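sorry for the late reply, my laptop died twice this morning and i had to redo everyting from scratch. anyway the thing you sent over, i finally got around to it. pasting the sequence first so we're on the same page, its 230 residues, then the predicted structure underneath. double check i copied it right bc i was rushing
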Amino acid sequence: MNYPLIDEQSVFDAVILCDGDFPVHKIPLSILRRNSFLCCCDNAGISAFDHGLTPDAIVGDGDSMPTGFRNSHSDIIHIIDEQDDNDQTKATRYCIGKGFHNIAYLGATGKREDHTLGNISLMARYMDDFGIKPVMITDNGYFIPAKGRNSFATFKRQQVSIFNLSCSHLTGEGLRWQPYAYKSMWQGTLNEATGDNITLDGDGSYMVFLTHDRKTTEPEHTSESHKNSF
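ok and here's the structure:
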C-alpha cells in the first residue's frame, strides 16, 4: 500500500476529535476545519464548540458532560454506557457504522500519559480488528499502523520512528539507518528519511510516526549508538 504525505490538504472520510490537547499546529488544524464529518469524544464536543466548530456527532459515556450541554445538544449526542471500550473506540465504531473507513484522529494525546499511550496503541487494533485506515495526527507528526510491505511518502530529513508490534523480520529502504525487527519500543525511534519515499517490509504489524517538519540541524553522529539520542 502507498501512504500519501499528510499535509494541510489531506482529506479523510471522518475526523474523530478526542479530549486531549486541542491541536495548535497548522496541519491538524487545517484537517479539523476542512473535515467532512466531525465526531467528538464526549467533552471534546465542548472544546469543538469553543473553537468555532460544529460537531456532526458527540459520542461517549457522557460521564463528565455537563447536564445543560447534554440537554441543549441532545440531537447529536450519542451516549454509549458500556465500559469495555474507551470513548475513542466508541466514536470509531459509530463512524464505521456510518460507512467511514479512512479516519483521522486528532486531540488524542496530551493531558494524561496513560490515555495518550492507550489511544496510540488502539491504532493497530482499529487496523487489524475493524479493517479501517486510521491515522493519528498530533502537533508534531502522525502515527500510521501498517502490516506487510508499504511505501510512505516523505521528504528529505523528515524524522521517522518505527515501532515493531509483531514482526520477526523487518526491512526498509530510504532511511538513514536500516530498520530491523526491533525487540524494544525505543530502538526504532528517531530515524530519518533520505528522500521523498520510504519503504518498509515486515512479516507482521508495525507503527510508523512521521514528523510534520524536517530536522533543520545536521546530525553530529551517524552511528547506531547515537541515533536514538534526543
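The chain has five helices and twelve strands.
thats about all i looked at so far, will dig more tmrw
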